[in-house]
Every structure is written in C-alpha cells, then in structure tokens.
Design a protein that fits this description.
Layout lengths: L28 H10 L19 H12 L6 E6 H14 L3 E10 L11 H12 L6 E7 L11 E5 L2 H7 L4 H6 L3 H8 L2 E2 L10 E7 L1
Parallel strand pairs: 1-2
Antiparallel strand pairs: 2-6, 3-4, 3-6, 4-5
Keywords: Pyruvate
GO cellular component, one term: cytoplasm
InterPro entries: GK-like_C_sf, MOFRL, MOFRL_protein
Length: 212
C-alpha cells in the first residue's frame, strides 16, 4: 500500500480510522450515525493490547530483486492510471542507458461497462508494448507480487518490441483491447502472459525493465 498506511493495509481491520471530514448536510442522518458507530476511536480499550509491525513493503521487493540481479535500483513508486503510467515508463526506458530498472507500482484502470480479461499490470504492459512496436532493445516484466493480476491466475506479463506483431498475427487489435480493458486476451494471443502461482506475500506490483 502506498505510504505504508496501516489504515489501508488489509483494510486496516486492527487500526483505528480517522473520521472523514464530512459536511453535516452531505449525508442523511441515519448514515452519519452508522459511520460514527462503525469505527472505534484510537483511545478505545479494544486497541490497548494491539501492536502492529510492517514486516514487508514494496521497497523490500525492489531491494531483493536488485540483490539477485546486481542492478541499478530506480527507487520510484508508480501510481495513477495504468495507461498513462505504461506510456511514460516505456518512453523513459527507451531514453535510459543500458541496464535493468526496477519500480513498484499501484496503478488503476477505468473499466468499461463490460470489461474483458486482464489486470492493471497487463494493461500497463500492453500500453508499453504499443510504444515499443518493432524495437529489439527494451523488455518489461509487470506483475503482482502476490502472483495475481486481476481475475484468474495470471501474475502479469513479460513484453517486448515484438508483442504487438505477435498479437496482431492472431487477429487482435491492441488499441481495441485496451479500450475494452481486454489486455489479457491480447497478451494471451501474443504468448506474453506469465503464471507464478501464489507467492505468499503482497507488496503491490513490481515492474522490471531491461534496456540493452
């Protein structure tokens, strides 16, 4: 969770939440009453013997990857729209020096009324693949650290400059798939999906880029 916010990690079940600054007229009386009763205050007795410790965070995953690969760690958190993040990351990697670059990410995808297959990592990866069409010097792994990206058992995707051509040969249009939030179907056709199974941890998503 960005910022290691205990109120948000795992929905903050054992953490007192701050009351939202709501206008008195913003909600009906019955709903304001429920909200006031739903979240115990920090000084409540139920929190007296509860101690919480963060034992893993996104930086832990990035550092572990760096130690394995002996790489330069681009210590950056990527948030916001997956589409814009994928485009920006792809452009940055094209302009970068040769090497391996590692980011953490927590992006979002606006879903249409009837979304297709995929997750935020797959969406981001397909956007990057569109930027890199025909290149042979850039590669990107985008995956959930828990081994899951969206519905199903897909962990993410490993894409390159040939991804677009491979999927297109199977009769799919990348832009249409992105508009339908159907990146997973395109990446399945291009052979770029990855499967890891459950990893036993979850410290957001990890992005690993290679520039040769």
């Amino acid at each position: 969770m960005p910022g290691d916010n205990l109120q948000a990690i795992g929905s903050g079940l054992l953490t007192p939440h701050e009351q939202l600054p709501l206008s008195k007229d913003a909600l009906p009386d019955w709903l304001r009453t429920l909200i006031a009763q739903a979240r115990p205050l920090a000084e409540s007795a139920c929190f007296t013997n509860i101690k919480q410790h963060i034992i893993a965070r996104p930086a832990t995953a990035r550092q572990a990857a760096c130690e394995v690969a002996k790489v330069y760690n681009h210590d950056t958190l990527i948030v916001g729209e997956a589409e814009q993040a994928g485009r920006t990351l792809a452009q940055q990697l094209c302009a970068a020096n040769s090497g391996i670059y590692i980011w953490s990410s927590e992006t979002t995808v606006h879903l249409p009324e009837n979304p297709g297959q995929g997750g935020r990592c797959q969406h981001l990866a397909l956007v990057a693949a569109c930027e890199w069409a025909g290149r042979d010097d850039v590669f990107l792994l985008a995956a959930g650290t828990d081994g899951n990206d969206g519905p199903g058992d897909v962990a993410g995707a490993l894409i390159d400059g040939g991804t677009l051509a491979r999927g297109s040969r199977e009769g799919l249009d990348a832009q249409q798939c992105l508009e339908r939030a159907d990146a997973g179907r395109f990446l399945a056709a291009s052979g770029d999906l990855i499967y890891t199974g459950p990893t036993g941890t979850n410290v957001m998503d990890v992005l690993i880029g290679l520039k040769v």
